[in-house]
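Design job #97: recover the sequence.
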């Protein structure tokens, strides 16, 4: 079953549709913020001479950023609309560039993944937990990392009952139009009021939350709300399970960052050992 069929049957959120909408607000400021976030987390100024694989490229923003930083980039996504987003960004900023390749494929398809070869940096932020086969997805993703290369992933943290509740919310949102309307009507005001109360308690201008959300990886708050509500399939794992799984596959942890809220994304950078 392809992404379109899964979306139509309520088994998957339309990530690509949301990213298409995001591209309408993408500007140079957001691109610069995304670049700063990648430079910071990888602790590099540029990627000149490096190869970069964007697994589940989504909007294509971080493929664009990696290309601007000098990397040879290969992007792929399961969702045809997301593939189209990356192609649109390439058309805007790097037309006819042979050093940015874009394809459609699934990280769960080991034959496809292995056909791509190995890369200096493999990036998959907030993607692998939406495959419905998290551990297979992580295993296949790590196959693409060259010896000494980096794997940068972000995976939802497991918060037990809270995570189970969010899974039910996301499943309801994706089930049909009524579910989408109901969950949006319930949670958008809750997100807004929760942020407003927090800002007032901290004596902070509430408008800053919306103006400055772009500093979070160049993202858009409204599009992130929609992605959070609808992001299904939805899997999660503790930092210990992720770190242990990849250690057994020959990776050393470089960095782990926990989310501000427990049920958000844990971010990891691992390096493949050369002697494994």
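Job complete. Output follows.
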């Amino acid at each position: 079953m392809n992404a379109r069929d899964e979306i139509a049957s309520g088994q998957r959120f339309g990530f690509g549709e949301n990213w298409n909408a995001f591209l309408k607000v993408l500007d140079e400021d957001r691109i610069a913020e995304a670049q700063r976030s990648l430079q910071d987390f990888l602790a590099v100024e540029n990627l000149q001479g490096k190869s970069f694989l964007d697994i589940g490229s989504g909007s294509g923003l971080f493929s664009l950023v990696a290309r601007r930083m000098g990397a040879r980039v290969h992007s792929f996504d399961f969702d045809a609309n997301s593939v189209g987003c990356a192609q649109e960004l390439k058309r805007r900023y790097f037309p006819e560039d042979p050093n940015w390749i874009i394809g459609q494929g699934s990280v769960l398809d080991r034959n496809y993944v292995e056909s791509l070869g190995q890369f200096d940096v493999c990036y998959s932020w907030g993607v692998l937990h939406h495959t419905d086969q998290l551990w297979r997805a992580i295993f296949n993703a790590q196959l693409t990392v060259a010896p000494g290369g980096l794997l940068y992933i972000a995976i939802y943290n497991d918060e037990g009952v809270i995570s189970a509740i969010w899974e039910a919310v996301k499943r309801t949102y994706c089930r049909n139009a009524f579910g989408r309307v109901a969950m949006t009507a319930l949670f958008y005001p809750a997100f807004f009021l929760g942020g407003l109360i927090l800002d007032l308690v901290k004596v902070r201008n509430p408008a800053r939350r919306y103006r400055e959300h772009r500093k979070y990886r160049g993202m858009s708050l409204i599009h992130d709300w929609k992605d959070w509500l609808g992001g299904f399939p939805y899997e999660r794992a503790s930092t210990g399970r992720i770190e242990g799984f990849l250690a057994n596959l020959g990776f050393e942890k470089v960095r782990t960052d926990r989310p501000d809220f427990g049920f958000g994304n844990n971010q990891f950078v691992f390096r493949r050992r050369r002697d494994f």
